[in-house]
Design a protein that fits this description.
The protein is mainly α and 314 residues long. Helices cover 61% and strands 3% of the residues. It has 16 helices and 4 strands. It has a two-stranded antiparallel ribbon. It has a two-stranded antiparallel ribbon with strand order 3-4. A hairpin with a 2-residue loop joins β1 and β2 (6-7). α4 (72-92) runs parallel beside α16 (273-301), α11 (181-196) packs across α12 and α11 packs antiparallel against α16 (273-301).
Length: 314
């Protein structure tokens, strides 16, 4: 038998005649089990296995077992339950969002500016993980969809950059500055998963791109403003800072990026139980890093003695 890997040769077992051997070979059409071959040929099971064994070694024979797998959307739905619970327990119940949601007036304004800055650092380095996942091998359709998402996300950092003009912060200033360690940790963690476990990374996109407060509608009745923007309005922050942040939220909402994970997983045919269990474990690590990203902003920028930008001189 000629295959892309070479020529597979099979010899008749000792004691098997040419007629029985050729009949057995003709029955190897992929529709029969070992038991079927025994029954139809009347040959001994060990002799049948001796003929079939080389094909098993070459990976040409399936074991016939029904894989224990669930559809991509079913797996994502269960994973989203875990992520949503952790989002409430670790992120929204954490110090940053508790202060933003309940007592924004008590926060130093640098916390709000720092939130914008760390988001810019995240967006500027988003290509580290969004580009890595473009090599997803499982499906050409998924790669095409991820490429569309990558194109839509490209240069979003330029939208947010305009928010820093009233702060006197330029792009060159940002390029010389360093993100907080907690921001870098989230970026590097996502980058690692995009390369080593791309489908799990795809599952995180819905959290990263989803609106933080999807129940509150903007004045136009169409754009949902997240909790951070609502807090900015509540304390009367300079619109020159707030509006570029709002513009970025509108772009994401317009592209419905909060649904990207579901759209992609709808094309995933199946996920085995062990992979799903591993993803549930990783969900805790992801959400811990995500919570640390927010809480790191509160911890650092609450101190007015610290400069807004961390440079190499610090």
């Amino acid at each position: 038998m000629h295959t892309p890997g070479g020529v597979l040769e099979v010899e008749a077992p000792e004691g098997m005649g040419q007629r029985d051997f050729l009949r057995l070979l003709r029955l190897l059409d992929g529709s029969r089990t070992i038991d079927d071959l025994e029954r139809e040929t009347g040959l001994d099971g060990e002799a049948v296995r001796e003929v079939v064994e080389p094909a098993v070694v070459w990976g040409l024979v399936d074991d016939g077992a029904v894989p224990a797998a669930s559809s991509g959307l079913a797996v994502l739905s269960r994973l989203e339950d875990v992520l949503n619970r952790l989002l409430e327990d670790l992120v929204f119940a954490g110090p940053f969002w508790r202060e933003v949601l309940e007592r924004p007036e008590a926060l130093h304004r640098n916390v709000f500016f720092g939130f914008g800055l760390e988001n810019w650092f995240f967006l500027f380095r988003e290509n580290e993980f969004d580009s890595a996942v473009l090599a997803l091998a499982e499906s050409a359709e998924l790669r095409a969809m991820l490429n569309d998402f990558y194109q839509e996300e490209h240069r979003h950092d330029d939208i947010v950059l305009r928010a820093f003009q009233p702060l006197g912060v330029t792009r060159d200033d940002l390029l010389r500055a360093r993100p907080l360690p907690t921001t870098t940790a989230l970026i590097k963690t996502l980058s690692w998963w995009a390369r080593t476990d791309p489908l799990f990374f795809v599952a995180t996109i819905g959290v990263l791109e989803g609106r933080l407060d999807s129940d509150s509608d903007g004045p136009d009745g169409r754009i949902a403003y997240d909790s951070f923007l609502a807090a900015c309005d509540r304390i009367g922050l300079d619109p020159a800072f707030v509006e570029p942040m709002r513009a970025h939220a509108r772009v994401n909402a317009g592209h419905d990026h909060g649904s990207v994970s579901r759209e992609l997983f709808a094309r995933v045919p199946g996920v085995d139980a062990e992979t799903e269990r591993r993803w549930h474990d990783k969900a805790h690590l992801f959400m811990e890093a995500y919570a640390a990203f927010f809480n790191g902003i509160l911890e650092h920028y609450s101190d007015p003695r610290r400069p807004l930008l961390r440079t190499g001189d610090i």
